[in-house]
Fold:
Amino acid sequence: MHVLGIESTAHTFGASVVDGSFRFLSNEKASFTSDGPGMVPREVLRFHQAHADSVLQSALKPLGPHPEKKIDAIAVSQGPGIGTLLYEGLQVAALLAAEWGVPLLGVNHAVAHLEIGRKECKAKDPVYLYVSGGNTQLLVRQEDRYAVVGETLDIGIGNLLDKSARLLGLGFPGGPLLYELSLKSQGFVELPYTVKGMDVCFSGLYTAFKSRFEKGGVEDADLAFSLQEIAFDMVCEAAERAMAHFEKDELLLAGGVACSRILQHKAKVMCEQRGARMLVPENKFLTDNGAMIAWNGLLALKSGQTPLAQDAEARPHWRADDVDVLWV
Ligand code: ATP
Ligand code: FE2
Structure:
C-alpha cells in the first residue's frame, strides 16, 4: 500500500510517498524564499507551478516505472492556507487521482503538523505547541477531536518573526535570519509581553518592535534577540500552564517555528523543571512538507475517511478543532 501526499498551502510545494508499513519512500519539496517583500501569493503560485512537476516526479521515483499502478490514494492539504495556493494543490491532486482512478483524501494541514510529530517522536498524549507562520496554538487530544486550549488572539508567531525580519531588511523566511542576526546581540531591549491564561497576543509586541526600530539608537541584533526571547517565553509560559492544567507530562513542538533552537531550548528547560519530556521531530518534518500530508492521508485511508469529490473546494480557514479525528 502506498499513499502520495501533496502539500501546497503556503511557501512550500511538497510531495511524499508513505507505504503501508509507515515508512517514507520520499519527502521532496521546493520552498519559496525571497530577499524582498516576502510571500506575495501571485509570486508563490508561479513558484509552485514551476516546481510541481519535478517535485512530484522525484517523490514518485522510488516506486520505479509506472508509479501510478502502486499508489492506492492521494492525500492533499485542503486547508488552512492561502486560497490560490490551496486550489492549485487541490487541482494537481484531483487530476492525478482521476487519471489514476484512486481516492482523493482531504487532509487538514494543522492536524498533519501534529500527527507527524506524534509519529516521529512516539508521543503518547502530549500538549501540542503548534507554532508556524499562520498559527500559534496549544492543543490536546480529546477523543475524536484536537481541542484548541490556547491560541494567539491576533497574528501567528511565525508571521511576527517574518514581519519583523522584513522590517530589518532581512529576507523570507524571517525566522532563521532573525536567529542568525541575534547571535551578534550584546543587549536586551524591553518590549511588551502579553500572555492571557493560555492565550497570547503578538501585535503589541510587533508595534513596539517597529517603533523602537524606527526611533533608532538600538542595534538590530539586540532587537532581534529581544523579540525572540519575549515571543518564545510567552508561548512557553502558556504551554506550561496547559501542561499543568491538563496534567500532561509531554510537550510536543510542531510547525516551522519549532525549528528555532532558542524555542527548543526554552521548552526543554521548562519541561525538565516539571519532570516532563520535550519532544520535537527533525526540521524536515517541522516546516511544511509532503510527508506529513502522506502520513495523515494513510491514517485517514485506514480509518475509512470518505474521499473528496473531484470538484471539492479548498478550505482556507479550516481549523484543527473542526476535524473529525477518526484514527487512534
Ligand atoms: P501554517 O499553515 O502551518 O501556519 P506555514 O505556512 O506557516 O504553515 P511552516 O513551514 O509550518 O509554514 O512555518 C513557517 C514559519 O516558520 C515561518 O514563519 C518561518 O519564518 C518559521 N521558521 C522556519 N525556520 C525557522 C527557524 N529556524 N527559527 C524560527 N522560525 C523558523
Ligand atoms: Fe505549516
The radius of gyration is 20 Å.
